[in-house]
TrEMBL record:
Tree of life domain: Eukaryota
Ranges for domain Ap4A phosphorylase 1/2 N-terminal: 74-156
InterPro entries: Ap4A_phos1/2 (IPR009163), Ap4A_phos1/2-like (IPR043171), Ap4A_phos1/2_N (IPR045759), ATP_adenylylTrfase_C (IPR019200), HIT-like_sf (IPR036265)
GO MF, any single term: ATP binding
Name this protein carries in UniProt: Phosphorylase
Length: 284
């Protein structure tokens, strides 16, 4: 990854924000606890310009180059690309951000799709990113029901920790404390030393459990979320990407929800945050 460090990540990020390349603005936080589950809503009006659903257009970027043939992601400035990872992925700064900074990791094969499961190449770059940037966690939103808004296969790096991470991990065997079903594994000897092959084996096992609760066959695409943070991998089966206007990706399932205005928070609380998570995932 060359000289890409957390320090020069922020420097590059700030420069591109100042030039209007990266969409980023101030946010306010609203913290809520529902049925014991902690939620943090980050209200960021700048996200109004972000396409939130697959196929949604953005007039501000429609003339920008796409991230390769077959891609539905925009690259309006080559400086967004930080480096290439393992000859399989681009490491880039995300175009629409709430965190400072926020990473995007895209397959160089721009015909790869977000409804595909993760493979060994994906895990190799996930581990490399986590090792280089220990303040970040990595997420994957598999399919529209998993909360993705673009179909070009990609991962994201966000500033940790996920808001409800400790609550979810500390629930232990009492899984009913969490509104939705999830499968997790504490990786030993941790991200610094675990091999991609072992990580892929663990993921494959957890994904098979997702398929089982969703009633899906081995050959069917399985909507799910993956979160990697603090030597843990968490895999969440998903039934819906949105319910009654409330939506969440992998970060949102772990309590970190980004919205554009206060009315979205009010809608979540009207439905009940725990109820939203049950509908998006599989009730515990």
């Amino acid at each position: 990854m060359g000289d890409v460090s957390e320090e020069n990540l922020v420097t590059t990020f700030d420069k591109l924000v100042s030039e209007g390349v990266i969409v980023y603005g101030p946010s306010t936080s609203v913290n809520i606890e529902d049925e014991g589950y902690p939620m943090e809503f980050r209200i960021c009006p700048a996200l109004l310009t972000k396409p939130h659903t697959v196929g949604a257009a953005n007039p501000a970027f429609n003339k920008s180059r796409k991230w390769g043939p077959g891609s539905d992601m925009y690259c309006p400035d080559e400086r967004l690309i930080l480096t290439q990872l393992n000859g399989t992925h681009d490491l880039a700064l995300n175009l629409f951000c709430v965190d400072r900074p926020q990473l995007l990791i895209l397959t160089l094969d721009s015909y790869r799709r977000q409804y595909e499961s993760l493979d060994q190449d994906d895990f190799a770059v996930m581990l490399e990113t986590l090792r280089r940037f220990p303040s970040m966690y990595v997420i994957f939103n598999c399919g529209e029901k998993g909360g993705c808004s673009r179909l070009h296969k990609h991962l994201q790096g966000l500033l940790g920790p996920p808001y409800a991470f400790n609550y979810l991990i500390n629930a232990g065997e009492d899984k009913k404390k969490v509104p939705f079903q999830y499968f997790s594994r504490h990786l030993l000897p941790g991200f610094k030393e675990v091999s991609t092959s072992v990580l892929l084996e663990v993921y494959t096992e957890l994904l098979s459990r997702c398929r089982k609760v969703l009633g899906l066959g081995v050959a069917e695409s399985c909507p799910h979320n993956v979160i990697m943070w603090d030597d843990w991998i968490i895999v969440i089966p998903r039934r819906n990407g949105i319910t009654q206007g409330a939506s969440a990706n992998a970060g949102g399932m772990l309590g970190s929800v980004w919205v554009t205005d206060q009315s979205a928070v009010e809608e979540w609380t009207r439905i009940g945050c725990a109820n939203v998570l049950r509908e998006l995932g599989v009730p515990s």
